[in-house]
Write a structure and sequence with these properties.
By secondary structure, this protein is α+β, with helices and mostly antiparallel strands. It is built from 14 helices and 19 strands. It folds into two domains: about 210 residues, no CATH class; about 280 residues, Beta-galactosidase, Chain A, domain 5, CATH 2.70.98.90.
Length: about 575
């Protein structure tokens, strides 16, 4: 076994995986269309409103006896909700349209849709358009009296409907108020920070009535997801799209949109944690207080035959005696998967929203690699050169393992003449040829698997690098040098893919071919072209990674061959 054979095996496995993933996407898309056409039992149970209001839990909060359970807030059409007074808030990072219960629109001002765009069209996450419906919603339910849902019951304070963060302001607060006929008032304040994407949401409950009031706050994300892009050369096609949640002391979990119903309802008790909806490069998340107790649920609703997906956190609950008050606090993240900004929130597990991998070990490894990549970027100031520097560093650290692999290849190369003799001796008798080959390996103390094992050890690192580079929003629209002005798009002139093919061909020429039959040799000769064509439309950042890694591998192999050749030359007398 040699490096080229292992690479061939890995290439075929990768191709098969890509084909399976593409087939699976087509099947799940068809299933999703069927589910959208026929309302499911789970959807019907939640009403016909995108993001229907949950029912207030029965029981007690903080030792107060429960009142008879009611249906909560009467269902109101979504159109009614859209007619309430809305406020537009503009900061240096966001332009948001919201009423008291719904964040209807969120534009990311620092992230244009297209690289070097001058049309002013930026990435948007929330959208009230039914065809692209996506909102963050929050309200209250109560079993002891009236409570404000997210449906058009909060009123903005003051007359301002367009609010802009001033140059000297660090944050801007936008308050809304609900007043019930039971004497209960809830004041909700959204606070937008400068330079950030985490919106603080505080609810202050004041009871001016004559009876105890018990209520539960709910926060939910509702979306009619657009069709997911496909294509094995498009990283977005392999990014996760769906709901994720995290509970401290438990684990990070996720569910794709088309599995919301099939995998059953989620009823997870949590203290702290968070819920989110993810897409490539961006996400939204509700982050309750770290000591708040809530229940995470997943559900779907139907609206005119369209399926809406809901991830909800219900709780915490509060009891407010007459003349008393209580408050709850949460954060709403709406923005990019910027690791540094997410880490600044100091929320356990929130960095998993970057979703380098669903597996904790691979995600952790990718996180370490991104940390190193960011450290290099802080010095060189260019993500392209940072990728090259990271690959050089990884290659240097793995050099002892690669050296063992090359030593095994050198031993195999020395046996080529004798193996060729065995082939001529036994001809087409494959069984005898195999037995004689194994006997030769045993006699010369050569283990073919030795060349395979180092590469298998390196593969998790290189896979983690691949997913890290695919998912890092920091590389989105980032330039490198010369003609490469966007590392997240393909090389416009296909220079890097051609260089990659040349490096693969040169590496193959240095690899031993002893033991291969003519068919295998022909397949190996075609591999550089097959892999080169496969990667021709890959994002330039990924191809740059492969080119750098391949070039360093070729250099190592060439140096090892020169070293072995020098060792085999007898010393002069």
């Amino acid at each position: 076994m040699n490096q080229t054979r292992v690479f061939l095996l890995f290439a075929w496995i990768a191709a098969a995986t890509l084909l399976f993933m593409q087939w699976n996407k087509e099947q799940t898309a068809a299933l999703q269309q069927q589910q959208a056409a026929v309302p499911t039992q789970a959807a019907a149970s939640n009403g016909a409103v995108p993001g229907a209001v949950p029912t207030a839990p029965s029981g007690t909060v903080a030792g107060v006896p429960a009142a008879p359970a009611q249906a909560g807030v009467p269902q109101v059409s979504n159109a009614t909700a859209q007619n309430s007074a809305a406020v537009t808030v503009t900061t240096d990072t966001l332009r948001v349209v919201l009423d008291g219960g719904n964040v209807r629109h969120a534009e990311l001002l620092k992230f244009p849709n297209e690289a070097k765009s001058t049309d002013g069209v930026n990435v948007t996450l929330f959208d009230a358009d039914p065809a692209r419906f996506y909102e963050a919603q929050s309200g209250w339910v109560s079993s002891t009296g009236a409570a404000p849902s997210h449906l058009a019951q909060f009123v903005p304070e003051g007359n301002a409907r367009n609010v802009t963060l001033a140059d000297k302001q660090d944050a801007i607060a936008v308050p809304f108020t609900w007043t019930g006929d039971n004497g209960v008032t809830i004041r909700r304040t959204y606070t937008f920070p400068r330079g950030g994407y985490a919106i603080a949401v505080r609810d202050e409950v004041v009871n001016h009535g004559n009876a105890n009031w018990q209520g539960y706050v709910y926060r939910q994300l509702v979306r009619n997801p657009p069709p997911q892009k496909t294509g094995y050369t498009n990283p977005e096609a392999f990014a996760f799209h769906g709901a994720t949640w995290y509970t401290p002391g438990d684990k990070y979990e996720r569910r794709k949109y088309d599995d919301f119903v099939d995998d059953g309802t989620l009823d997870k008790d949590a203290t702290g944690g968070w819920i989110a909806l993810l897409q490539h490069y961006f996400f939204s998340a509700w982050i309750p207080g770290d000591q708040d107790k809530s229940k995470f649920t997943l559900s779907t609703t139907q609206d005119n035959g369209v399926t809406h997906y809901v991830v909800r956190a219900l709780g915490p609950g509060v009891n407010v005696a007459p003349g008393q008050k209580a408050e709850t606090n949460a954060r709403l993240w709406v923005g990019p998967k910027l690791v540094s900004a997410i880490e600044a929130q100091n929320v356990p597990g929130l960095t998993r929203a970057v979703d380098f991998s669903r597996f904790s070990i691979m995600a952790t490894l990718a996180g370490w690699l991104f940390f190193v990549l960011s450290a290099i970027h802080s010095v060189v100031g260019n993500w392209g050169w940072s990728i090259i520097g990271l690959v050089i560093l990884v290659r240097a650290l793995l050099f002892p393992i690669a050296a063992k692999q090359f030593d095994s290849m050198a031993k195999m190369r020395k046996l080529q003449p004798r193996m060729q003799q065995l082939k001529e001796r036994y001809g087409d008798d494959r069984q005898k040829l195999q037995m004689a080959t194994m006997e030769l390996y045993k006699k010369e103390k050569v283990n073919p698997a030795t060349g395979c094992l180092p590469l298998l050890i390196q593969m998790p690192i290189f896979l983690a690098l691949y997913w890290m580079l695919s998912e890092s929003v920091e590389l989105r629209h980032a330039p490198w040098a010369l003609w490469i002005d966007n590392l997240s798009a393909r090389d416009p002139y296909f220079v890097l893919p051609v260089i990659n093919v040349a490096i693969m061909w040169a590496t193959q020429r240095l690899a031993p071919t002893a033991g291969m039959d003519p068919t295998q040799q022909k397949m190996m000769q075609l591999m550089p072209i097959v892999i080169g064509v496969t990667m021709i439309f890959f994002p330039a950042g990924l191809v740059l990674y492969w080119v750098t890694n391949g070039a360093l591998g070729l250099l190592q192999q060439w140096w090892m061959l020169r070293r072995d050749a020098a060792r085999s030359v007898p010393a002069k007398a």
